[in-house]
């Protein structure tokens, strides 16, 4: 029986957007739940610590461990959900300016594999940079040797300063400092991979489950990475 799997939504995204992915995994007999976030749950974290999100992730993990009598889970982090998961794994106090007390979940022993889908593991964008700098400085690359890191990137849109490429160009520029590069339309490949991880590139996938066309969790792209959950 595969380990229980938890889906961690992306920035400003709600759990309902991942229902199709959750159902696809359940059909493969992978016990799966999505952290029950609503879009408004993210609002207090804009430019601030993501502590409330990590707390909800921890509650979901504990529930799945208990429900399935398991010792470990697998995590799927979409977009920001990937670096939120890396904070959750960590053993360093997570404290940002304005916080009175720090939090530390030390969950790396509870997680067998972390799969990140279109996660920007670096950023130059002011709203997320502080959190990502914390992760990069404390847990660089595939930091915990006991955890299997699988980082999935999309090669779909080349960022260009012309119609059809502007959004991707600006997003890539704010993320990795280079706009003229490949990515999924939001996250460039250069930011979606980690040193020491098993790094994959899937052509033709869009960044978000709400994007038109296929995304990382659609049935065909899913075949490229679901093996890591089985």
From TrEMBL:
GO terms for molecular function: hydrolase activity, acting on ester bonds. Pfam families: PGAP1. InterPro entries: AB_hydrolase_fold, PGAP1-ab_dom-like. SUPFAM superfamilies: alpha/beta-Hydrolases (SSF53474). Residues 56-126 form the GPI inositol-deacylase PGAP1-like alpha/beta domain. Gene3D superfamilies: alpha/beta hydrolase. This is GPI inositol-deacylase PGAP1-like alpha/beta domain-containing protein.
